[in-house]
Amino acid sequence: MADIRAFKALRYDLGKAGKIEELTCPPYDIISNAQREGFISRNSHNVIRLELPKGEDPYGQAGQTLAQWREEGILKTDMDPGMYIYEQEFLSKMDKGETKVLRGLICRVRLEDFAAGVVLPHEETLSKAKEDRFQLMQATHCNFSQIYSLYQDEGHVTRKRLDNLAAGSAPRYEFSDGLVTHRLWVVNDLAAIEAIQEDFAGRKLYIADGHHRYETALNYRNHLREQGPWCPGADYVMMMLADMADPGLVVFPTHRLVRELQHFDSQALLNGCKEWFEVSDLGGLEEAQAALDGEYAQGKHAFVCYDGTCWRLLVLHDASILKKLLPEVSADYRQLDVTILHTLILERLLGIDKENMANQVNLTYTRSAQEAAASVDAGKSCCCFLLNPTRVSEIGAVAANGEKMPQKSTYFYPKLITGLVMNDLTQL
Fold it and tell me: CA 87, 93, 99, 100 torsion: positive or negative?
């Protein structure tokens, strides 16, 4: 099962590099060009220069920058192998809601092909993103960000270990980015590390966020085995592991925007929905969100559709229709809200097939309901569909079945910050 290891992380020397809050950044794939420049202007040593390089030869530049920072002592390798406790404290709805705390473990994890059933994905990936990450790994031989994975631990044994270890000392880093307070502890105690390793010996890991990076790590490892120079750490990848039942886990929905669809007919869509859904009118976005929350609490499958004129709540009549339409997939997969929306509405009523969705021809995504509605109001989208979040239990069930959800089925919040620790693949 899961083979996890301590490692000598590459970390910033704050005496030379600056404040840790000026050196870190969110995941590369949610950063705009303007935001990237903002991070660099704040501190020229920000990790974004390594994780999201730009220019005529971006990957080569990242490799050169990494080498220069190591030579100058901006980045230094820890003296002893360690595991790293990472904690995030945040509000459950970004601007309101209850305060939550998620605590996990950053370590190395031995790469396993998905067929081995040890590390399990839950979402489809895009080839373009994997090619980008592969070229960056080739140029730097380093992981700058952690893959976010979950594990099952009914007794919460590992979480209790992490709590005890964190209670024994002050965090090495503690800072806020405005929305999230980040804390990091370094664990070098050999007995503690061995105990944590034993905890994971019988566990599977479920990728929550970072599917592209995991598949890239597999490709990189295989490439080196076939034709590249030996890289001692390439059999491992850096992960942050969290308990699947941790009360700090928060999943946001990802809403769907339908755009540039020829001959879009709102009335025809409404009439078609009535075959499978109970349709009721809503007064606006606030009422729509409240209605979705209510249906979610009752375990019902529901969506909100907004076409620029009317807000409508769609509640599925009978989930058994999916068994007839998708007999080849598991019951867990058929019960996903995204499966129901894609199968009944996007594919059958709007004619947006899976290839179209994958290439984002007539379908785009946003986490913001306000942004979705604004896109429709501005005429950029024909309509939008607001969803409830996928439950963590559903993610685990689908992954355990060896199935993958449609792209953009989950949005774990908050995202893991990049730059606290880095994994040098040239070292064991």
Answer: negative
Distance CA 90, CA 178 (A): 10
Residue 339 is predicted with a pLDDT of: 95
Closest CA to 120 of 201, 200, 207, 217: 207
* Residue 77 φ then ψ, to 5°: -85, 135
Q: What angle do CA 41, 44, 50 make, to 5 degrees?
A: 115
For 322, the token pair is 């999916």
E strands present in 210-361: 236-243, 250-252, 255-258, 277-282, 302-306, 311-316
Answer for the pair 4, 199: CB distance below 8 angstroms, yes or no: no
pLDDT for res 404: 87
Other CB atoms within 10 Å distance of the CB of residue 206: 24
User: Can you tell me the distance from the alpha carbon of 134 to that of 217, in angstroms, rounded to the nearest whole number?
Assistant: 8
Measure the CA–CA gap between 29 and 49, rounded to whole angstroms.
Answer: 14
Within 8 A by CB and 6+ apart from 83, the residues are 4, 6, 105, 106, 107, 187, 193, 196
Q: pLDDT over 70 for what percent of the chain?
A: 98
* Lowest-confidence pick of 125-134, 181-190, 352-361, 394-403: 125-134
What's the Rg (C-alpha) of the chain? 23
Whether pLDDT at 192 is above 80: yes
- Phi/psi for 91 (5° steps) reads -90, 140
- Nearest Cα residue to 217 out of 241, 232, 238, 240: 238
The bridge status of strand 180-187 relative to strand 83-91 is antiparallel
- Cα separation, 412 vs 392, in Å, equals 10
Banded pLDDT at 57 (limits 50, 70, 90)? very high
pTM of structure: 0.91
Given the DSSP bridges, would you call strands 411-413 and 83-91 parallel, antiparallel or unpaired?
Answer: unpaired
